[in-house]
From TrEMBL:
Cross-referenced SUPFAM superfamilies: ISP domain
Species lineage: Bacteria, Pseudomonadati, Pseudomonadota, Gammaproteobacteria, Lysobacterales
Keyword Iron set for record: yes
A Pfam family this chain is assigned to: Rieske
Gene3D superfamilies named among the record's database cross-references: Rieske [2Fe-2S] iron-sulphur domain
Species of provenance: Pseudoxanthomonas kaohsiungensis
Domain Rieske: start-end pairs: 6-105
Xref: PROSITE patterns: RIESKE (PS51296)
InterPro entries with a match to the protein in the record: Rieske_2Fe-2S (IPR017941), Rieske_2Fe-2S_sf (IPR036922)
Name of the protein this chain belongs to: Non-heme iron oxygenase ferredoxin subunit
PANTHER family: 3-PHENYLPROPIONATE_CINNAMIC ACID DIOXYGENASE FERREDOXIN SUBUNIT, FERREDOXIN-RELATED
Length: 110
């Protein structure tokens, strides 16, 4: 677990309906940050079905899901749960904070 927060971007660079990948240098974890109607969420940028980056996929802001382009697995960006096969395991969720107009996240797993 890391107490160090990773800078993602400024709030103006991640608009509603957009997602942005970032790399947690401390833990070596790829993280994907989502803006759903102004609410920010972060998941590990790795499909739980196949080790493939979710950032290559498609964000559906209406459903609040991201779809892996490899096999079509979808995940809820709010909590990381798998929404359909072939994925059955959730994707780890991470905290997000806004400080002085900047978006930050971190891998908080113990």
């Amino acid at each position: 677990m890391s107490d160090a927060w990773t800078f993602v971007c400024t709030t103006g660079e991640l608009l509603p309906g957009e997602m942005r990948p970032v790399f947690d240098e401390v833990t070596g974890t790829p993280i994907l940050v989502f803006n759903l109607d102004g609410d920010l969420y972060a998941l590990e940028d790795r499909c739980s079905h196949e080790d493939f980056e979710l950032s290559s996929g498609v964000l559906d802001p209406a459903e609040g899901s991201v779809e892996c382009v490899l096999h079509g697995a979808r995940f809820d960006v709010r909590d990381g749960r798998a929404l359909c096969a072939p994925a059955y395991s959730p994707v780890p969720k991470f905290p997000v904070k806004i400080e002085d107009g900047s978006i930050w996240t971190r891998d908080d797993r113990g």
